[in-house]
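Data deposition worksheet. Section B asks for the primary sequence of the deposited chain exactly as it was used as input, without tags or linkers unless they were present during the calculation. Section C holds the resulting structure in token form. Section D is free text for depositor observations; keep each observation to a single sentence. Incomplete worksheets are returned to the depositor.
Section A, Depositor: J.P.
Section B:
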Amino acid sequence: MKLLPYLFFVFYSFLSLAQPTKIIFDTDMESDVDDIGALAMLHGLADAGAAEILATMVCSLNPWSVPTVDAVNTYCGRPDIPIGAVKTLGVYRNSNYAKIISEEFPQDSGLGEAAEDAIKVYRQLLAAEEDSSVVIVTVGYLTNLAYLLSSYPDEISELSGSELVRKKVKRLVCMGDRYPFQQDIGKWGNFRPDPGAVVYVSRDWPTDIIYTGGGDFANLIPSGEKTFDFPPASNPISRAYAVFLKSWNRNYHHSADLIAVYVAVKGWEEYFELHSQGYNHIFEDATHMWRLQPNDPRHHYIDNLLEGVNPEDVTEVFDELMVTPIRAKMTKE
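Section C:
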């Protein structure tokens, strides 16, 4: 794999021959830094022709989350990507990097309060797209998706939110928790802060859902080390990883959100094991258990690499995608 950095664009040049996956990225962008890595990876996939980023949604009420997303989009050469944010009841968590990124790197969104309502942005984008053409990947809370599902027909579309999703969305990829079960209410994860949204979306989402896990699985792929090859002051990706990981005294992190983005754009077949029999039973406290019966054909989960896949190889691919926008920016400068 020593040659991979040099052969990377050769391998991915073939992606331009296929239609890019249309992606809406929904993130909390506050409590963990893998949201930064996942968004950087998504831009790397877009640079390679594999993805078209329709929007970057924010599901956190932290006022610095929106401008952080905007700062990354701007740095990666896509400053005009629409940003929608949760506007009413939602989750607030602190961040040790979001305010820093927002203040140190160019962005013109201002604080999150100034962003458009995510429900409106979702409905506008989905209404304008072809049927079954959009993949939504959520690496945060499911608040925005619950609001979208429950939205009413309006001047944007005569369809309800559920009808709009059924018509326009190909699948939802949801990074959340550990599989095949998570029964410890004290464990960190995206499901616990808004359990009602998780129950509702898992039960009523009308298209396929692929759940991707964190925990030991995400730690198999320790990404982010290559961001330290670039001066933190030069880009928001390296800066965020340097700030977040300072207290950890290391230069890598888990890849929970990156796995979800990769699966959303490229699929699972190359690296990951997909489980489809059964369904994800979500309890009211947002703990969950994969049950084999009854079978729900919408529900799938990924919690492991395929037999024979070297996790170091996956890490190399993830890291290269994450730093692709940095290399591209340096080349232009």
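Section D:
Residues 5-16 have pLDDT under 50 and may be disordered.
The two ends are 28 Å apart (CA to CA).
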